[in-house]
Amino acid sequence: MLNNMDPPPAEGNFCDNSNCPLKPHIVEWYNQHMGFVNISDHMVNSYSMDLRNLKWTMKLFFHLLDLTVLNSWILLSSCGAQYTHRDFRLLLVRNFIEEAGKSQDRPTPSLTGRPSVAAPNIVRLKSRHNQHWPAKSMQLRCHVCSSRGQRKTTVYRCAKCDVGLCVVPCFADYHTKVNL
Asked: Which residues contact 141 (CB under 8 A, 6 or more apart)?
């Protein structure tokens, strides 16, 4: 056992008068207070995020996160709130999901560094036409090719507009150009 709270034991005999070994002070202290450790471990493990196949650093992070949630619940309970540990965790998750939904309404941050060749088209599609993405469907005629007098079929469509479009270049043309 390692301990830095107590002075080291004096040298000599570690048995009492009846030749029974003496229990070190750190063992007595641990036995008095280990109930709190066991209760805390039990409460953390009752609703822990059991994630297998992770590196030890991630396991440590999630264990510390579980301890943080438990300590938050204990603090909230000491203020008079009447939540069970399970209900507190569910409420916490609901609040995180609500906050994540609110943060998506914020504008996208500006990109830093040298832009890629395709960056202007992608940024323009994201900012002006949110949720317009190619999706697989049955065979459809490409709307842009048809307007140009070509007869082409495609298995892709815009998920939001539900219009058949070739992925390259018709999808971007349909969503960015006024005159096709």
From this structure: 151, 152, 153, 154, 164
